[in-house]
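Hi R.,

Here are the chain sequences for the assembly we discussed:
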Amino acid sequence: MNSERKRVSPNPLIEQMAADLQPVRSIRFRDGLILVTLAIIVTILGVDFIKGLWFNGLSGGASAFFVITNGLLLILGCASVSSALKMAAPRVGNSHDGPKWAMAMAAVLPLAAFVTLIGHDHGTSLLNDPYGLDCFVGGLWAAAATAGALVYWLRKGAPVSPNLAGLHVGVASTALGSVAYGLACPIDGVVHLGLWHVAPVVAGAIIGRYALPRLLRW
Amino acid sequence: MIADEQTLARLMVASQKGDQQSYTVLLTEVQLWLERYFRRRCPPAQLDDLVQEVMMALHNKRAAYDPDRAFLPWLAAIARYRWVDHLRKVYRQAEDGLEDYDAPEDSDEEAVLARLSLERMFVHIPVKQSAVIEMVKIEGLSIREAAQRTGQSESAVKVNIHRGLKKLSAIVEKAE
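And here is the predicted structure of the full complex:
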């Protein structure tokens, strides 16, 4: 053992790195959480400024589907944010399984929408939704600030699973973006919410999984 | 004996604050740890490069260590990440084979580190994939030689290496 130690002690790389050492602020989960919270607050203020929040719905005037959909998306967003933030400081033993269960839970929403469409006499008429695309695009736009915050955080850190990190960033930002934009949407039917408010999350997952890893590799 | 988890974590926290003496001690210990960590999964001629690569990664990403969490699982995750990356880059270098290398045995005191090891990652991929990765990327056999030894076709060897490496990169943190 001592011979091993003697052999490594004069490594010039160590001397050089020690000479270059500068103090750094270490990554802490709570700092990332504050950053993402600020991004979400900015997003909600932006939605309120541009579209105006649906205060009647927020004060109990909305259907149960409105609360259930936004609640499930919020849980999914929180689970994915938590995993994405933790991935900046990696460790063997992290499984990041939480968001998978939350995704399965949120998948109930489009399923409920399809069941409603099948069981409805005039199901196709329910698909004729002039506000659907607006909510889809709005949900994606509302994801931008959170996605930016998470990518910034991960680039500061050392994610060792860039594909999974990208997926979590995509899901987290679009789930929270859809909730933020959903606070301005007065349409509270199961088909509209189950399809058009969940669709941005599906798009976010695809974009995150395939477009973001190149930004996260190091 | 390599320093224990608490000592390494303490040295890392001091290093993040700019303590050069602690950092020198930490890097010396980390170098020893990495040499042991990689010795069975990397040809000796490539060992120094891989160890230095991980030490550079540690230096560049030292802010990514959270002082509230353990140090060795963090270092192991970075070492695994760089190792999978290294396997992707490795081309045939027959002279670098492990056959003649007499790797020293692990001591009992390192048993606790076994759960962080590289071997644990191979458990999570099919044997047909781990076998050809080992032969081609670690021992330095050619695709043809690996195909002859395993009975797989050459294209199957290539596909299994590709799929195996993809799977390994996905379980860097998860496999323990």
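Chain B touches chain A through 47 residues (CB under 8 Å). Chain B has a mean pLDDT of 82.

Let me know if anything looks off.

Best,
T.
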